Amino acid sequence: MHTKNKPPLKIICVLFSFLLIFSSIITAALSGMMKDIKTDLKKAYALVTEEENSIQIACVGNSNLYSGFSPYDLWNEYGYTSTICASARQTIEESVNLMQKLFSKQKPGLVVIDSDMLFDHNPRTGNCCKKSYRIQDFLLRARPAFLKQDIASIYSILKSSNFNTHGYKYSSKICKIKYADYMHKTDTAEEIAQVNKNQMDRLLKLCRDNSTEILMIAIPSISSWNYERHNAVAAFTDSRGIKFIDLNLLYREIGLDAAQCFRDKGSHMNYNGAKAITDYIGNYIKNSYSIENLKSNHKYAYWNDNYQRFTAYKARLEA
User: Fold this and answer.
1) Measured between alpha carbons, how far is 113 from 82 in angstroms, rounded to an integer?
2) Residue 74, Cα to own-chain centre: how many angstroms?
3) Residue 230, Cα to own-chain centre: how many angstroms?
4) Contact criterion met (CB below 8 Å) for 67 and 94
5) Residue 167: left if φ>0, alpha if ψ -120 to 50, beta else—which one?
6) DSSP H/E element including 147
7) Domains of the chain as residue ranges with CATH
8) I want to staple 79 with a disulfide (CB 3.0 to 4.6 A). Which of 45, 137, 295, 299 is the partner?
């Protein structure tokens, strides 16, 4: 009778140690990721640290917005105070809750809304916003296709967490990509889920009830935008009398180089892209709305001081 040789005890111990270490690393990583998910909205609630009645422009949306708009650069160029109420894959319902919180302390003259939220394919309302959906969100982000592009830029983003950027998430990373024309003109429109339309109407009503003007924008994103979505949002905003700027159609006017302005594979802007977009939006606001330039107002001198800190902060991260 043939007896199989038992593996040496040393090998078994090594394998067991390896598995123990590997499981510990995975557990720690998952724990950290889940903690980030849990605290993501807390970062969006940075608006509560703003001086009362100091914000002229409030911006609300998801990761496209917090990656593509820089409040300090808007202040430096145009003298407008602004804050961003945004988190990754933020829903319109979450945005309504954030804006209710903001309106309790602020009286902005303009609210800028990220239209990408209209295409949340897992819309959640009321009691449907359960932990199970958060797990689904996590699993979606854990897919290799997402991790491949996110891990490469996560370091430069996380380093920015110790400085108050008014909701903007700074990243100096440049992911060089080959630009493809993703905005092929068409007459077709992607359908917007009715629940998302209803929730957006809630957000619009909240803004109007607080006597603020509304501007809807689409931040450039090769991976999440196309002309069908442009048509859908254009029809939605037109039917509700809202101004809409699709920045995906304005690369040349903005001065964006698609090969240099993304921090990942065409999904999110890096700082170069955000600065250019902020300048374009700031100029549009200057020419379209009656919002006061506060740079010479001594009550807002702290914005000048903090802009200098922001400049030093960027230099430190890029060093």
Assistant:
1) 13
2) 17
3) 19
4) no
5) left
6) helix 144-158
7) 9-318 (3.40.50.1110)
8) 295
Vertex 156: Cα angle to 151 and 157 (nearest 5): 80
Please give the structure tokens belonging to residue 26. Answer: 């995975």
72, 307 Cβ separation under 8 angstroms: yes
Q: What's the length of the chain?
A: 319
Q: What is the mean pLDDT of residues 88-110?
A: 95
The pTM (predicted TM-score) of the whole model is 0.78
Q: Which residues of 170-196 are buried (b: 16+ CB within 10 A; e: fewer)?
A: bbbbbbeeeeeebbeeeeebeebeebb
pLDDT in tens, 26-81: 554 444 444 444 445 455 556 667 889 999 999 999 999 999 999 999 999 999 99
Query: In Å, what is the CA distance from 70 to each residue of 38, 79, 85, 246, 252?
Result: 24, 13, 12, 18, 20
Q: Which residues pair with 218 in a beta bridge?
A: 246
Q: C-alpha distances in angstroms, 267 versus 141, 150, 179?
A: 13, 10, 12
**DSSP 3-state of 166:** coil
Pull the structure tokens for residue 255: 């001065």
